[in-house]
Amino acid sequence: MNLTAKQSFLGIGLCSGLLFLPGAASRPAAQESTARLRLNVNLVQLNIAVTDKKGDYITGLRPGDFKVTEDKIPEKIATFEEGNQLVNELGEDAEEVSTPENRGKVRPTPARTPAESASDAVSNAIPAVALANPVGASVFILFDTSNYMYHGFVYAQDAIADFIRSIDIEDRIAFYSYSRDLSRAATLSTNRFDIVRGVRNTVAGDNAALYNSLLLTVEDAAPLRGRKAIVVFSNGPDDASSVPPEDVAELAQSTGTIIYIISTEVSQREPVSTAAFERVSRATGGKAYFANNWRDEQKAFASIKDDLGHLYTLSYYPKPNPNRGFRAINVQLTGKDLQKYRIRTREGYSLQQAAVNQPNYSAATPSGPGSDAIDPN
Hints:
Layout: E1 12-14, E2 34-35, E3 37-39, E4 43-51, E5 66-70, E6 73-75, E7 77-82, E8 88-89, H1 94-98, H2 114-119, E9 125-126, E10 138-144, H3 153-166, E11 172-178, E12 182-189, H4 192-200, H5 210-221, E13 228-234, H6 245-255, E14 258-264, H7 265-268, H8 271-284, E15 288-291, H9 294-309, E16 312-316, E17 326-333, E18 342-344, E19 348-350, E20 358-359, E21 363-364
Parallel strand pairs: 1-3, 10-11, 10-13, 12-21, 13-14, 14-15
Antiparallel strand pairs: 2-20, 4-9, 4-16, 4-18, 5-6, 5-17, 7-8, 7-16, 11-12, 17-19
Helix pairs in contact: 3-4, 3-9, 5-6, 6-8
C-alpha cells in the first residue's frame, strides 16, 4: 500500500444532498479504484461522557444541562439521546423536551434558511441517510494480527469474543483485522455468531500497518448516523504505515468517530507509540488503555462497553462561521451543582475539501458480491 499524507483523507469530499458509499459494490482485494464519499451537511454530532471525580458515570441529564459552543459561537441542540434510548428531536425549546411528560416525544427540526444550510459544508456533518439516529451504536473492532501478535494471540481472541458477546443487542458490530493490509472479516451486523466466527478465523503474520488500516476503518464509519466507535487492539508499534496518526485523528474528529485503543505491554514500552495512541484517542473523545496481561485486556474491553452505554449523543446545526479550518468545540454543563462533573468529548473538527478523487487502497475482503458494503441504516 502506498499512501501519502496528502491522500490520508481517503476521498472525503463534500457536496450537499449527495451521498456516495465507498463500499456500495464489491471490491477485489488489492484493487485500486476511484471513490468519493460526499456527505450531506446538516448536523454536527457529539458523543459525550460525563463522570464524577471517581470516574463514575452521571446519568439522567437533560438537553438544557449542556452548553455547546463552536469557535465560541453558542450552538442550539437539535437532537439528544442518552445511551441506547430513542433519539429526541428537539423543537424551538430544548427545555420543553427535558420535562418528564415530554421526554421521548419527537419534535420537528427547525427550518433552516438557504444561507444557513449552505454556509457550513463540513465533513463531520451527519449525512441524510436516515431521519433519526438508529438505536444502538455502530462498533468497529480492529484487531492486530501482525507478527507482533504471536505471543498471547489466543488470549486476545478470547477477550475480543467476550467483548462482542457483552455488547448491547441493539449495537451493531463489525470485525476487521490488520497486518500489512486490512481484512474486513465481518461487516456491521447484530449477528454475534458471525462476528465471533470472524474473530476465530484470524491468523497472525506480517508487519503492522495500523494507521493505514485505521484510516480505512474511519472511512467505513464516516457515513453512519448515531454513535459510532472503533475499538483497536494493538500489540506493537506501527512499522508499515505511510499515514501519520495525526491524519487519522483529524479524519475521525471530522466524522464524529470515537477511537478506543487497547495496547499491550509491548507498546507501553514504546514511548512514541504510547504517546500517539493517547493523542488519537483523546482527540476523538475516546480512551487509550495499556494492558499488561489478558486480565487487563478484559478489564479494558469491559470499560469500553460501559463507556459506550453511558454516552450522551447530541447534535446541532452549526451557525454561520467564517472559519474554514479547524473548529474548536467546547461543551460545558450548566448549573452550579453540575460544574463538579467532568466531560469527555472530541476537541473539534476540520473542514475538508469538496470533490476529492482518491484511490481505494488495498484491503483484503471476504469473498462474495457486496461482502464489504456498509449498510448506513
